[in-house]
Structures are given as structure tokens and as C-alpha cells.
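Below is one protein, fold included:
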Amino acid sequence: MRRLGFVLFAAVVASPGLAHAEEAGGCAKFKWSIAREQAAFASPDLPSVESGQSLPGVMNAAIVRLKPQAEVAFEHEPARKPKVKTPFAAVLKLAPLAAPGTYEITLSEEAWIDVLQGGKEIRSRGFSGQADCPGVRKSVKFPLQAGDATVQISGVRSDSIRVDVLPVE
């Protein structure tokens, strides 16, 4: 009986699917794949942008250098109050979108995302997040029109965050 238990234990430990799920932690629990964002966020060559600047474009992840939230001039007040005592934030422009569609905005840290187009707040179409996924915390889908858009990030604990914007396939 002990031998059967050892064989079963060895089979479970050697199972590549289980090992991958354990290694991925909470990353496997996202409602949609975040594999591309994980790879992008791990790149040592990410460009850096400051609050008030433009993100490098769709499918071009970046490190955003944040300011204390009290110093950020938002187009619209963030829809959610910060959960931290001294939050950081940024207002960023997206490069003009060539086509309308649903776009995913993914963040490396806990934060709130507001997206604006034509001076109006855009309601999200979906959200997924996991606190136990190394390098990726949250991904939100927004229906956007072609043209300019503004992304407001608020309520961040640290002074930088990784951001990626992708069209939903």
C-alpha cells in the first residue's frame, strides 16, 4: 500500500500540467490569457513614460513613472477613491487608435483605470485580476472608438507601474 501511495505521489509531482499550474499561481486564474503581457512586462528594455506623456502605442508595453496623486491634473476625477494613504497616479494619452474595437489595458500593480474619449468616461466591458500573479495584477477591457483616448491610472502604492494596451482578438 505504501508503494502505491509513493507511485501516485511521484506521478502527481511529475505531471507537467500540475507543475505548470502551480508555477503559474494566480496567473492561470485570469479570465483571459495574459501570457503576452507577462512576457512584455518581463522585458528589460521597456520604454519609460511620465504622467502627461503618450504611451508608446498599442502592443508596446511601458513603465509609467507616476506622481503623487494629489499633484496629478485629471481630466475627470477618478471614479474610485484610493485604497492607500499616499497614492500615486498618472494621466496618459494613447497613440491615436486606427480602428474601433475592444482594447485590453493591463497593469502590473493594483490600481484604478479610467479611460476617456471625447471628454466622456468609457465604461469597461470586462475585468480580470489576481493578487497572486507575479508581474501582472489586473486587466480591463474597454470598447474604444478610433482616434484619441486618455488613460487615467490612480490609487497606486508605488511610483511606477507597467502598462500594456492590446486589441482584443
The first strand starts at residue 48 and ends at 50. The chain has three helices and eleven strands. The radius of gyration is 19 Å. Helices lie at 2-14, 16-24, 35-42.
